[in-house]
Sequence to fold (302 residues):
Amino acid sequence: MEIIKCEKVVKKFGLFTALDDITIGVPRASVFGLLGPNGAGKTTLIRIINQITTADSGEVLFNGKTIKPTDVALIGYLPEERGLYKKMKVGDQALYFARLKGIPSAKATKELREWFIKFGIQAWWNKKVEELSKGMAQKVQFITTVLHRPELLILDEPFSGFDPVNVQIVRNEILAMKEKGTTIILSTHNMESVEELCDNIALINKAKLVISGGVDEIRRNHGKNEVELIYRSEQKKNLADGPLYNVISEDESKSGWRIVLETRRDTASREILESLLPKVDIVSYRELIPRMSDIFIKLVSE
Fold:
């Protein structure tokens, strides 16, 4: 079942169309990537889901019913533009947000301290927010966003300001929440994170939905039936086209000679390897499936 369903959503600001007939569904207990260049309409859609603004037409369903303001209590939202009260102590700030979400003070304090230990910021409980680095402030906001265990978690560029170690910590937490049944909408320009985390994506460009579906399916559909083969040899073999493939390129690499083949559609890798094994000493063989970053650039450019 889809936790969020947007049906023919349109939003205009004066003469400017921010969203034009957007229809997407977000499966429950999954990580859904909401992608697009700056100004594409992603943040507008997120704000409609969060009831910060309303659509001009169309409908947003939450758990199969028209979304309403009270549903926001079941949503966690980490916006790209962060906001903490700089003069407050970090612990007091986190408790304040927890109380706003209806968590009893004693329970909030206990769970916040556990989260602070997990993220390595327990020593900053009594420091002022203005003393935090960007990354530490980001940790505090992430914690306060997920503390009430929302059904739906919306993260807008959640890795901004983090070093690689802390990026991995947050990624692990996102996956752990997914395993426990939380649905995550991830809005990011980091295509590596999309490939690592997302089950499905929707790409919006210039207010319109360009493509949506499973990440693996989209990557394969945009492939060119190409494979890369590395072989050992003192000299280049100058392989010729065969009945199963065409030779696209053949050049030297650090691991040996590298060949790129365009295979006939529906040809099994086993068949290709069997035809090549008598000719070359194969080191590695892999399909060349396009990266999400390449697909993003191609579709947005078009």
Summary: The first strand starts at residue 2 and ends at 13. The domain at 224-301 is CATH 3.30.70 (Alpha-Beta Plaits). The chain has nine helices and 14 strands.
